[in-house]
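User: Run a structure prediction on this.
Assistant: Running it now.
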Amino acid sequence: MKIEEVFRERLNRHHDELRWLYMELYNNSDMFAELCDQMYRFAMERAAEFRRLDTQREKAPGWFRKNDMLGMMLYIDNFAGNLKGVKEKLDYLKSCNVNCLHLMPFLETPKGRSDGGYAVADFRKVQPELGTMKDLVELAKACHKKQINLCMDFVMNHTSEEHEWAKKARQGDGEYMSRYFFFDNPAIPREYDRTVPQVFPTTAPGNFTYLNERGSYVMTSFYPYQWDLNYKNPRVFNEMMYNFLFLANQGMDIIRIDAVPYIWKELGTQCRNLPQVHTIVRMMRMISEIVCPGVLLLGEVVMEPEKVVPYFGTVEKPECHMLYNVTTMATTWNSVATRDVRLLKKQMDIVNGLPKDYLFLNYLRCHDDIGWGLDYGTLKSWGMDEAEHKYFLNCYFTGNQQGSESRGELYNDDPVTRDARFCGTTASMCGVESAVYERDEEKLSNAIRLDLMLHAYMFTQSGIPMLYSGDEIGQLNDYAYRENPEKREDSRYIHRGSFPWKLAKLNQEKGTLQERMFSGLRQLEEIRRSRKVFDSSTATYTYDVKDPAVLGILRENEEERFIGLFNFADEERTAWMEEEGVFTNLITGEKGALCNVTVPGHDFLWLSRKKEEK
């Protein structure tokens, strides 16, 4: 079938709904016609090899739900200098069993006012020091040859104040001012502030920035140099969709939609999660399926799993393909500090109770800080105070709590409320850093054991696991950011250090920290990808083993019964249980019955029984 015919068939499939939603939002048939014309242009410009992938994936719509999916997120400059450097390191990534590579923001941003790459000045240019769009396409093609999917961030909510639109708006051009939220009267911003929560109340208080040269206010939900886009203007939606399709055509397989809940603003509301947001995401999904159906949408929605569910859409009208499992991540570290898995078990029961069509991306650590967005209603019912508990957690992970070996720093620390978020690498949070500094082998063994246990637990969850670059070799905190004037005020750079390639070379040298972490993770990864019981469609439940420090997870399909036991305490505990048949320890190969199983401190067991071996 010719390209034009394929496009028309896909367009016809979605045209009526897409037009209905567009007209409901904008009531502008001319702009809708322009959108359709531009979709056709981007479809015709799409490279032949990317179109072939589209066709393959349309025929296998569940291609990304398999048990062999493993992601890794990294900063291009920290990992390999530039895009060409990343291309040269693909064999290393394959040795990590990674087949989904998330490149942290790399589009052009202003020096010193980039917010880690999330203040985009040009959606069609790569930061010069990282390479060019041609380099990006070449990397995408090289990734595809090695069966690695490429993911990037699409920052929809705002642009940098250095973006061409913002510059023209600052000059008073009404066409471009209408693409943002400008107000001459301070009363309107004050009205917004009555109902709109602040994102960064300590480092960037308020939701508006006053521009002296214009004598007006502009909405800036995040930082003063990030201007919120006005999606009530159809020109904004159309142009951002053209940017989206341009980036998809560079060979992206997954596009992460940044800060999704914020993209529609209404006076008198919290400007979060409004119905129009879902209309926009649904239209994005259809536009993608018309032009580049092999591309997946990953939504960044930082809320509890049951509240993010609407962003999946419905079976008939889907929105995002995948969402982050943010709250479970924070609750995991809460369990490390408290040695108590009850809240985590409750959280996982909610996730496991959702339809299997809902695919979550699971992680222990990402580029951002860790905010303690826990279920404080439940904690309060257990006699815990929210403010005191947050303070305890921050003391624990900075090493200022008795019994803690964790090392890290606070982010957005408020000395009045004592509220703060936390930063640090996975290894440093697990105690590896303090053990290395003290040259204490016993402590180091315990820290590595905890680190591997947490990864094994993450691999056992339902969904796709995502590693943070450096975790595979136990990378420690990097305090050099304090000497950089552009970074010293942002403690998140403590876990954004340069990848230690010299240390990474030790990942094959028996007994080194790097080898112990790398080989331990590799064994877990290879077991996971070799067994269908880890497929995201498999029935998954928590398993009550009558000990608040031990988390049990049961995965079961027609062929296999798998049980994972994870001890969050630092001393030996017993998982009180009794199972029929003989189980195999997938790590050691040992076989035996499961009856009141002993789990060493900060350790785990992966146990399996084939159904016919009952």
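The longest strand covers residues 573-585.
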